[in-house]
Specification:
- The protein has 191 residues and is an alpha/beta fold.
- The chain has a domain of 132 residues: Rossmann fold (3-Layer(aba) Sandwich).
- The protein has six helices and seven strands.
- Strand 4, helix 5 and strand 5 form a beta-alpha-beta unit.
- The longest helix has 17 residues.
- It is globular and about 50 Å long.
């Protein structure tokens, strides 16, 4: 199957007056995964499982799983149908009590909402744990939540780019704009 993308649509996305789209290429993505893997390897902590947070953390979680030779689990968050994540998180919380270690992976720690929700569901609150760690490709230094591993950091007070990861490239412009506008305070008008 051969997929083609209309270059005019991609170029026009960069011309959006309200959203500063920033594409991370495949090479940047794999480099970021490598950075996270090396940070974990330098640490004395090692997870039993990697958990990709759906949707944005599934691809980086898969790559990290292969790179570190660890099994991958996934928990859906993006659908906002919490029935598909709450029972899994409750199960993982019981596994944590039994001493299993989990590295949760997402694409970006932006506002901290996703990571905070997961920490609370796992019984971690805002506290660090020997059994739970979080890794992201990009972390907002002024987020309400911190992560343990990040390939790069931004400060959302100053950096208002909307990041398009390689797995989001095929989304329509309308879908990317809709996603970006879910929290408009993260964006800056370029008008």
């Amino acid at each position: 199957m051969n997929i083609t993308v209309d270059k005019r649509e991609i170029e026009s996305m960069n011309d959006s007056p309200d959203i500063d789209f920033h594409r991370l290429g495949y090479n940047e993505f794999t480099n970021d995964v490598q950075i996270i893997a090396e940070l974990i390897e330098k640490d004395s902590w090692r997870p039993d499982f990697i958990v990709g947070i759906g949707r944005g953390g599934l691809v980086p979680g898969t790559y990290l799983s292969h790179r570190l030779d660890l099994p991958l689990l996934s928990v859906d968050h993006s659908s906002k149908v919490h029935m598909f994540s709450d029972s899994l998180l409750a199960h993982l919380a019981r596994c944590i009590v039994d001493g299993e270690r989990f590295l949760f992976v997402d694409d970006i720690n932006d506002s901290g909402g996703t990571i905070g929700r997961f920490k609370n569901a796992l019984g971690q609150g805002g506290q660090s744990s020997l059994s739970v760690r979080f890794a992201v490709l990009i972390s907002n230094t002024v987020s309400s939540q911190s992560v343990d591993y990040a390939a790069r950091n931004i400060n959302r007070d100053h950096d208002k780019r909307w990041f398009i990861f390689p797995w989001g490239e095929l989304a329509s412009r309308a879908a990317q704009e809709r996603d970006a506008m879910e929290q408009p305070e993260r964006l800056a008008s370029r008008r």
